[in-house]
Amino acid sequence: MLLDVCLGKIHRATVTDADFxxxxxITIDGLLVDAAGxxxxxxxxxxxxxxxxxxxxxxxxxxxxxxxxxxNGPPAHHxxxxxxxxxxxxxxxxxxxxxxxxxxTTVFVDEKNKITKIKKGWRPA
Length: 125
Prior knowledge:
The protein is mainly beta. A 9-stranded mixed β-sheet has the order 2-6-3-5-4-7-1-8-9. It is 10% helix and 49% strand. The protein has a single domain, classed as Beta Barrel (Barwin-like endoglucanases). β4 (43-48) and β5 form a beta hairpin.
């Protein structure tokens, strides 16, 4: 049996742009991608604190240190510059692996999407 478990999240990030004329995805600053233990192409759920919309898409790695959080394509209808979002990445793991997990790795950011704190969620093996 595989369980769908939250691996990592970026907490209360600020949307820096929303580009309707792009094919899709979310561009995330590469430093944030690495800090949360995520990968380009990985599926994520983006939750808007402004309007409650949740959108599933995939990660495009942005330039490191620019603080970019850009919603591309259709989500640009629901997310706008300045909105706060929580970005959650889930993985399929065995029951044994899930039992070793305490909480997801959580990356906390400031209003410019600079890392302020990282809470690692895995219990020691």
